[in-house]
Amino acid sequence: AKYSGSQLLQKKYKEFEKSVRVEEIDGVKLVKNLAVKMEEMFSRKAEATRRLVEAAEEAHSQHEDNPDLQYEYFNAVLINEVDDEGNNVELGGEFLLEPNDHFNNLSVNLTLSVVQVPTNMYNKDPDIVNGVYWSEALNKVFVDNFERDPTLTWQYFGSAKGFFRQYPGVKWHPDEHGVIGFDCRNRKWYIQAATSPKDVVILVDVSGSMKGLRLTIARQTVSSILDTLGDDDFFNIIAYNQEIHYVEPCLNGTLVRADRTNKDHFREHLDKLFAKGIGLLGEALAEAFNILNDFNQTGRGSVCSQAIMLVTDGATEMYDDVFEKYNWPERKVRIFPYLIGRESAFADNLKWMACANKGYFSQISTLADVQENVMRYLHVMSRPKVIDHEHDTVWTEAYVDSAVSLKDKSGISLTTTVAMPVFSTRNETGILLGVVGTDIPLQELMTLIPKHMLGIHGYAFAITNNGYILTHPDLRPLYQEGQKRRKPNYSSVDLSEVEWEDKDDSLRNAMVNRRTGTFSMEVKKTVDRGRRVLKMHNDYYYTDIKGTPFSVGVALSRGHGKYFFRGNVSVEAGTPLLCFFFLKKIKEQHEHRHLTQIQAIKLFMTGRRPHLKCDRELIQEVLFDAVVTAPLEAYWTGLALNKSENSDKGVEIAFLGTRTGLSRTNLFVPADQLSNQDFLTAEDKEGVFNADHFPLWYKRAAEQVPGTFVYSIPFSTALENKSVVLASTAIQLLDDRKSPIVAAVGIQMKLEFFQRKFWTACRQCTALDGNCVISCDSEDINCYLIDNNGFILVTEETSQTGLFFGEVEGAVMNKLLQMGSFKRITLYDYQALCKEYTGSSDSARTLSDLLPRTSVLMCIILSSLHRFLLEFNLYSWWNIDLSVKAQRSRGKTMMVPCDTEYPAFVSERTIKETTGNIDCDGCVRSFVIQQIPSSNLFMVVVDNKCDCSNAPPVTMDPIEIILDTFEHNESLKCDRLKFQKDRKKPESCHPFHPEENAMECGSATRPSSALAAALLPLIAAAFSR
After folding, report:
1. Which residues form a coiled coil (predicted)?
2. What is the DSSP string of 722-734?
């Protein structure tokens, strides 16, 4: 306790015991207040988007299309590019770019926007040029929106013609092939805003005439159609020749949600299609109509728009009898034929189908034609919404902002987008001009969460109408493999996959259905990258966020997590003492950016700047913590100045943190001599206060008995020579269970120093006669110091430091589990990625036993060991990450999403000492384990006389959940595809409109003359080289 100052801090908080007020947190009130704040924030973003809609529609109404218009605009790829002579290239020009920390230090222009045109489109196509010209009017609104709300990030307009206007202006860079594959019309925010939810059946002709290139184009066409489907859509794919073949046989007669997993599953099956026989389209159409009708009757689909996509190389008749039976006169199901190949013999029949059923006909001759032709159906599906002039506001699920993620290597930037459609207000019927949107970094949501009111283990989370996580501390969207990469299904992680103890989905379904209520359950929360587990009882409070499809929840852990205390000190007393706390960034408030946090607090709390956006309650509590913890600065300084203390510089840092996020640190060695220089820095994400969690050392200290210390070795240093040990303890305000944890203090010391102190204590003989018959120096025994989760802190074999005890002493660990000294807790990871390994795992040593004399040894050394530990004030240790061990010991191939089961281990607190014997092939091995008082540590002494290397190790390796038989596995896959969790359908639906112009139903497509004229010189130049 000497170096941490824990006793002094406990005393200081006790002095204020009578002047503070302990309150039970009202979870219902808390979550409702949070929902209101989020609603206000989302409303500001939606309002900014609405202003863009109004400006775009007004600008278009004032513009007369001119096919000969010449207009130089800033092309996102060409800006600041020069030719061989140093002149700006066409559509480039000098474009001022400056780094901006609000946009993750990307170089941007806050005055102008840029325009990106897909690589497969012509930059000077008249439609593009006219659209770019009139949409220049959005620049002024972009800037105005940003000035009104400085928290806004990217704003943009995606045109139905294909170009993308983005603010602030930023330079785009092609890939290594010189291509930018981005097409705004393929983005979810565009598709959701442009169309209503839909049920789709895709019919693919696999008759003999579809062999070769035609089948290849057909596959790509189907894949592109799947790209346009989102989580509110449902689909199935049927291949037909003289028979009907469901691409996924187990989904006969039904539809499935168009989520990432299902679409990828069907794509895999597309490669198995082969062409033969004759095509009987009539039966296939009838099957598609029956599926759509039957599925619609169940109420499980979109219950909105319906469509049949027909991918074929021809139709010998018009099949009007089929349409008359199933679709006329209402024509609720639209038909979209895609004629594959250059031949047009059957084009008239297919076009007639489209026109007679409110669809659109396209001809696709090459792979290059696929995307542009597939996109055309979206404009047809959007007609009812356009005619109704319904500017529905749509919100996407969480996704990684690729522009930011490429730049921000230190973390991720999850984003949601709010978008609205833009319509022509001229006399035309049903013209979609495009979609406007703005990104909302979910980190902005985190700033609204009153973390100081949620307790140490409490958290807030939000989900979408489909049950997908918008934000949750257990969401892991990236995996590490040299660099951070997105997991394939990161944007569709269901709440039930992280709150997996809720087996009946009670919490998830209530939130999906936008209810307000409460829920409770026992949970197992992992920390330290899944190595350790904390068992607790959580109370959940939830409600909907008005004006959005989202719901928000708050989880509070019972016990100290349900209570909060309020202290009170003067502004004058507390302000000078502040070191660090969470407050809204002053830089986000333009007129106050020149103020420091301290200046802002003084001005706000004294009433001289009441418009500052500060949290008065949080500031008051931070000031209180600053006053109470101030004496530790002088205490630590005194220790540092005392030359007789810490002469070998084994203790490097003392630190504390309070429930409000205030932190103090004191260095006992120069900063450049720290063994672990990442600790308490931004690089140490689990070791610092964050918007969504308390530090790991704080969390674990809070779960120990008050006054005891938790010891650990940080994972990031366990593989290095510069290893350290952390130790921390929690400070409790009162002496009962309802007392909140007000702070935690601790130290960082060198691992070598800690281990040396341990061995010194072990070798001291305290026997009355001075004759110790055995010590840890004996070759007959192995001595270990392990923590309450079974990780080794000290052992004579230094290479075993940081390993799980069961990997080294498998037989002993198995016996401890049998005797109840340790418990195995089974955990599940539904966000896992599995690697296919080659080779074998590390051949960890698996000793195990101990002789009866070791119990005598324990009694002799424990008193010395106890004194050694009390000299510090510490925290708990942790092991090497399993994924790192796996990468070190095994080869790897590709990574695929999977579900895994893995164990964690926890000591039984009530068992203070245990002895046991193990039979190793007739040789009896003994061991003794005893808890070290006032810590989370255990001394283990094992007899080394028997060879127990044949005993299997106890590992923490995750195991993929795979069923025993192929048939059972296939059956489960099918059940999973068919199974649909509860979802809340979007409230808006525009399936069809009587005023639609059904005669605008397509024609065979050819390259535009302008594009052809542009491509001819390029082709000629290529052949001349």
Report:
1. 38-66
2. S-EEEEEEEEESS
Question: The tokens of 49 are what?
Answer: 């988007």
Look at residue 752 and give its three-state secondary structure.
Answer: helix
Q: Please report, as a single letter, which amino acid is at residue 682.
A: A
CA distance 195 to 385: 7
Q: Are the C-beta atoms of residues 229 and 196 closer than 8 Å to each other?
A: no
According to DSSP, the residues that pair with 566 across neighbouring strands are 21
Q: Is the Cα dihedral 48, 54, 58, 59 positive or negative?
A: positive
| Per-residue burial over 803-821, b = 16 or more CB atoms within 10 Å of its CB, e = otherwise | bbbbbbbbbbbbbbbeeeb
- Convert 643-695 into a string of H (helix), E (strand) and C (coil): CCCCCCCCEEEEEEEECCCCEEEEECCCHHHCCCCCCCCCCCCCCCCECCECC
Each residue of 893-908: pLDDT tens digit? 667 778 899 999 999 9
Q: For 27-57, what is each residue's pLDDT tens digit?
A: 999 999 999 999 999 999 999 999 999 999 9
**CA gap 13, 292 in Å, rounded:** 68
Q: Are strands 959-960 and 895-907 parallel, antiparallel or unpaired?
A: antiparallel
- Least Cα distance to 411 among 690, 184, 30 occurs for 690
Boundary of a domain, candidates 441, 463, 479: 441
Residue 9's Cα: distance from chain center in Å?
Answer: 37
920 has which bridge partners? 923
pLDDT 10s digits, 143-170: 999 999 999 999 999 999 999 999 999 9
Closest listed residue to residue 229, CA positions, set 157, 309, 168, 171: 309
Residue 582 CA to its chain's centroid (Å) = 22
Helix axes 631-641, 6-15, angle to 10 degrees: 160
940 and 973 belong to one structural domain: no
Question: At a CB cut-off of 8 Å and minimum separation 6, what does 549 contact?
Answer: 395, 464, 465, 984, 986
Are 208 and 139 members of one domain? Answer: no
Residue 498 belongs to domain with CATH number: 3.30.450
Q: What is the pLDDT of residue 511?
A: 97
Handedness of CA 864, 870, 823, 948 (dihedral sign): negative
CA atoms within 13 A on the CB side of 47: 11
Cβ burial of 870 (10 Å; 0-12, 13-18, 19+) is middle
Residue ranges making up the domain that contains 934: 758-766+773-836+896-960
CB 76 within 8 A of CB 170: yes
- Pair 217, 348 in one domain: yes
233 and 258 in contact (C-beta within 8 Å)? yes
Is residue 567 in some structural domain? no
Question: What number of residues does the chain have?
Answer: 1025
Region of poorest pLDDT, from 555-559, 928-932, 996-1000:
996-1000
- For residue 615, tell me if it sits in a domain: no
Report how far residue 14's alpha carbon sits from residue 6's, in angstroms, rounded to the nearest whole number: 12
Q: Report d(CA 624, CA 219) in Å as an integer.
A: 66
pTM of structure: 0.86
d(CA 953, CA 932): 25
663-667 and 651-658 beta bridge pairing: antiparallel
Mean pLDDT of the chain: 83
- Contact criterion met (CB below 8 Å) for 121 and 1014: no
